Amino acid sequence: MVDINCDMGESYSIYHCGDDEGLMPWVTVANVACGFHASDPRVMTRTVALAKRHGVKVGAHPSLPDREGFGRREMRLDREELTAGVVYQIGALAGFLRAHDMELNHVKVHGSLYGMSARDPEVAAAIADAADVFGAPLVGMVGTVHEQVWGDRPAGFVAEYYADLDYRDDGSLIITREHEAFDPVRSAERALRAVTEGKATSENGKELTVRADSVCVHSDTPNAVELARAVHDALKPHLSS
Q1: Is residue 231 part of a domain?
Q2: Is residue 241 situated within a structural domain?
């Protein structure tokens, strides 16, 4: 069975990002921003409450401390500093989950921190140290340092496929500062292939081996709701309850 996960709760104060209300019916897992790249306490508690109403599981979506760059600029932090920052963010979300009588489902890091941890074992280990505090599974990509460092964790490793990002020929993600719209039909077809065949295609047409325990749709993709609905419909027979 597979989940559809979405990065959510990325508004801040009076600034709005993403249609969480429109997206929530079409996903099974919400990755809720924890304040470092987006969100604030009010947005976090409202997003958790919205997920609960829709029966959607909630995980933490921690980031580098880069609100101005939306967490999509790389930064150098030592291992202790990075672990502490991720624990801080997960802990904040855990408080709101407790207030709504929900459990932390997983941890999925955001943006450049995700890309860095897919390449650098020290960064990946720092994130694992933080997730281990909460006994939470980590979400990442097979064939990368994610799998090497997180694959055998007692708390678990969830492999994901991206429906609205392109892949390089080496299997790495092309993480853009601003997401562009993707063709929902094509994205849904590719997501189904990733789930059923374990295959994806790079931007240059190379065949890639993937594993899709979960399929990601970003809330800030311009046509996110339409895309999420198409992916949901394509994967419906395979979705987790």
Answers
A1: yes
A2: no
Residue 72, domain extent:
3-236
> What's the CA angle centered on 194, arms 193 and 198, to 5 degrees?
105
Distance CA 9, CA 16 (A): 9
From first to last of its 241 residues, what are the pLDDT tens digits of the chain?
Answer: 999 999 999 999 999 998 999 999 999 999 999 999 999 999 999 999 999 999 999 999 999 999 999 999 999 999 999 999 999 999 999 999 999 999 999 999 999 999 999 999 999 999 999 999 999 999 999 999 999 999 999 999 999 999 999 999 998 888 776 778 899 999 999 999 999 999 999 999 999 999 999 999 999 899 999 999 999 999 999 998 6
Spatial CA neighbour of 30 closest among 4, 62, 2, 63: 4
Give this prediction's pTM: 0.95
Question: How many C-beta neighbours within 10 Å does residue 152 have?
Answer: 9
Residue 215 resides in a domain: yes
53 sits in which H/E element: helix 41-53
Give CA separation, 56 vs 47, 110, 113, 160, 201, in Å.
Answer: 11, 19, 24, 17, 29
Q: What secondary structure does DSSP assign to 67-80, as a single string? A: TTTTT-S-----HH
Domain total in the chain: 1
Tell me whether residue 141 is in a domain: yes
User: Which CATH number covers residue 58?
Assistant: 3.20.20.370
